[in-house]
Amino acid sequence: MVTYSLKQSLDGSWCVCRLGFSLFSDLRLGAAIKLAREVARDEHLRSGRSVCVEMPGTDASIRLAQYAGTAAVLEQAA
Q1: Is 48 exposed, middle or buried (0-12, 13-18, 19+ CB in 10 A)?
Q2: Which residues touch 26 (CB under 8 Å, ≥6 apart)?
Q3: Residue 10 burial (CB < 10 Å; 0-12/13-18/19+)?
Q4: Which are the contacts of 38, defined by CB distance < 8 A and separation ≥ 6?
Q5: pTM to 2 decimals?
Q6: Which of 2, 14, 42, 61 could form a disulfide with 54 if both were Cys (CB 3.0 to 4.6 A apart)?
Q7: Paired residues of 27 in beta bridges
């Protein structure tokens, strides 16, 4: 599964990351969530892979969106 994550900077702005690399930065929280969901949905539609969006919570990550793999991919895994 591909994971996009939101991370808060010291100045309070947010960035959208994948594999630890910042893709977009200096965003407000609402804009960061919206952009991360759009990017994740686009990747899922193009690749058919499972993709999710997470942000840090107090105890664990909070999943904000999840786009499951295609039916063909799920059948092959079974």
Answers
A1: middle
A2: 9, 13, 15
A3: exposed
A4: none
A5: 0.83
A6: 61
A7: 14
Q: Tokens representing 12?
A: 């309070």
> What 8-state DSSP symbol labels residue 19?
T
Half-sphere exposure at residue 12, Cβ-oriented, CA atoms within 13 angstroms: 0
- Residue numbers in the chain where pLDDT is lower than 70: 69-78
Q: Which of 2, 10, 5 is nearest to 24 (CA)?
A: 5
Phi first, then psi: give them for residue 42, nearest 5 degrees: -60, -45
The pLDDT assigned to 70 comes to 60
Task: Find residue 24's DSSP bridge partners.
Answer: 16
**Residue tagged 């999840």 (tokens):** 66
Helices (H) and strands (E) in the chain, counts: 2, 5
